[in-house]
Amino acid sequence: MSDQEFDRDDHFNVQDDNDPTSQGEDDQFRSDGERVNSMVPASDMLPERIYLLPIHNRPFFPAQVQPLVINRERWEETMRRVGNTPHQTVGVAYVGEQGIDSLDSEGFPTIGTAVKVHKMKGEDQQIQFIARGVQRFKIQRWLSSTPPYLVEVSYPKEPVDAENEETRAYAMAIINGIKELLPINPLYGEELKHYLNRFSPHEPGPLTDFAAAITSAKGPELQDVLSTLDVAERMQKVLPLLRKEIDVAQLQSEISEQVNAQMQERQREFFLREQLKVIQRELGISKDDRENDVDTFRARLESLVVPERVQSRIDDELDKLSVLETGSPEYGTTRNYLDWLTSLPWGVTSPDQLDLNHARQVLDRDHDGLKDVKERIVEFLAEGSFKGDVGGSILLLVGPPGVGKTSVGRSIAEALGRQFYRFSVGGMRDEAEIKGHRRTYVGAMPGKLVQSFKEVEVENPVIMLDEIDKLGQSFQGDPASALLEVLDPEQNVDFLDHYLDVRMDLSKVLFVCTANTLDSIPSALLDRMEQIRLSGYIAEEKLAIAKHHLWPKLLKRDNLPKKRIQLSDAALKQVIEGYAREAGVRQLEKQLHRIVRKAAVKLLEDDVETVKVSVKNLEEFLGAPIFRKEKVLKGEGVVTGLAWTAMGGATLPIEAGKVHSLDRGFKLTGKLGDVMQESANIAYSYTLGHLQEYGADSDFFDSAFVHLHVPEGATPKDGPSAGVSMTTALLSLARHQAIDRPLAMTGELTLTGQVLPVGGIREKVIAARRSDIFEVILPEANRRDYEELPDYLREGMTVHFANRYRDVAKVVFK
């Protein structure tokens, strides 16, 4: 076949002298040439050399006719060559699950089936053709072991004694088995009946192949049948496969009958129940659905103390429900509305447990560290014990991720003995999530607050609004504004949900909100909250948390005895310093979990009783440390500043350098925000005007082009706390004097040299200690913030407080 024999529609023009559409009444194709999966006996003059096609699903049997689909890119050349042959015959061999790329001559079976190719055409990436099985072949010699595969074959005889009693008996058994299969499995239908009439006990070979082909046996079993040349032996192998197919078909039939019987029984029960309802209603001994609903709603109200205005609305709705038809849409809407109104805990409250000792025990049990936070919560509870309740308060827990804000809220609820309900408002864009949908909308529902009351079943739960700093805003409304009514003690006494359309009292609820940062919280919303800051943990606190909470929890979760995995304190400290240096403990928990998983593998594979994790073998479990010991940058014009981020405190090196002396200039880099750029310009101006006062050349900047850089340039930075550090860097450059010791500083500077206070003192002190810097300069106005820090944070620290920049210069340059 030449290249020109492919037309524009990708059809293969194959000469076909034996086109099945030209055969007589016994042909296995319909007049349109589309009959498939049929079986015919065939014998033709066959070539000694044929091309091979591997197939994967199941072997192809002689006298079988069915379509084959092959990959065009891989086998197009093979099919071209087959089309060029006068016999148009190709060998089909079953190769199982072997991949084509790894297939070689050893992967092909010795016995395959020669097939005639009819109606070959190419479509997209595939070639389709109808294969008509002719006869078994046996590979004698490989002529080409790479595609196109070409082999020299012989056509072995199939020894059979058709007149033998045993052979006839097997043939009759196979015929009876096929007849038995036909009524059970309708998939074979009339087509099998038609071809069954063509076979007789006098032709056991084709009959046996036909029986094997209609079974759902696996490929290797069928290949074994195909490779068996002796017909009597082949029949012995096929008969069990046929019996197995009959058994499976019978089981499927029984299952179908059982399913149908169950369906009929359920339909019968349904009709009987409906008739029973009608009879009972006629006799007056049962109620209809409407009366049942009304009675259910009234029964719910018996144990509640419903406000008068709400009771009036419920009575009106019950009267409406009693006259509506149960099938009308309005009935369903009214029923759902009453279901919500009567499911809320009107007047139901749980008693508060205002025992301070109990509260301390719960907080100490659940959390290590956070001493100032615990004291603030105890003070809050003490205040509530005098008032008689702690309702109407809104706490805001602010801190980096993983410091335990959500779990602190849960502990507050347990200390008070109240129900706890949490939902996240992060990413919420629809105010209806807070205040509900109006009942005129299809699928309307109350807001999250009303849903929480239905779940906790009391009016005074602890409700946590998680991630309140991540509220969204869209065309559907502003959820932050919707929360103003919820979180304002003056307004939430009469909170109105759009769905309920009746006033609810939220004043007894204790709201606990969480946030990572305050910047994105609207000021009007922030003003209604009492802030409690969780600043993160130092290494000592993380060590206690890991030993008392994280490690036992992981072992218990995986059902591992504590003695089987032993983690030394030194290794735990190394995990904290080298792999989990963030402010919270979430990353620490992940690293400990990695240790537990790898230790579990060692316990199973190495068959040891105990796995010991120490500093020496820690890298076997966690790999190389993520964090190395931070080196404090030193040199002229280099200063270590302190910064606060949403992830906790961090050291911030600042570098100032003289680029050239051709002209005056000032350049800033480091992806600085507007506030830090202003700080840098103020620092430059202040330094320029006070060079002589601080012992530098008064004309240093007249001809110096200065570059001020804050490393880690890819990280955006902004905040009013770098003025002092930038001024010191510029002054160090002008004096040609490097800072000779580990020293960090923070504070904002004015043009007149005043040092202004900054925030995040705790986080910044923690960051300095983490970098082994124990001498710090802070603004005088932050002295009180420093003195309120726990003793363990102030231990070993040398802190200088500055009112004006000259106080800073005295400490830095002595």
From TrEMBL:
- Gene3D superfamilies the UniProt entry points to: 1.10.8.60, 1.20.5.5270, 1.20.58.1480, 3.30.230.10, LON domain-like, P-loop containing nucleotide triphosphate hydrolases
Compartments annotated for it: namely:
Cytoplasm
Q: Which SMART domains match?
A: AAA (SM00382), LON (SM00464)
InterPro entries listed in its UniProt record: AAA+_ATPase (IPR003593), ATPase_AAA_core (IPR003959), Lon_bac (IPR027543), Lon_bac/euk-typ (IPR004815), Lon_lid (IPR054594), Lon_proteolytic (IPR008269), Lon_Prtase (IPR027065), Lon_prtase_N (IPR003111)
Q: What induces it?
A: By heat shock.
Instruction: Quote the record's binding site residues for ATP.
Output: 399-406
Q: Where is this region: Disordered?
A: 1-39
Q: What is its main location?
A: cytoplasm
Active site located where?
A: 721, 764
Its function, per the record, reads: ATP-dependent serine protease that mediates the selective degradation of mutant and abnormal proteins as well as certain short-lived regulatory proteins. Required for cellular homeostasis and for survival from DNA damage and developmental changes induced by stress. Degrades polypeptides processively to yield small peptide fragments that are 5 to 10 amino acids long. Binds to DNA in a double-stranded, site-specific manner.
- From the Swiss-Prot or TrEMBL record, give the protein name: Lon protease
Give the originating organism.
Answer: Vreelandella janggokensis
Instruction: Quote the gene name from the UniProt entry.
Output: lon
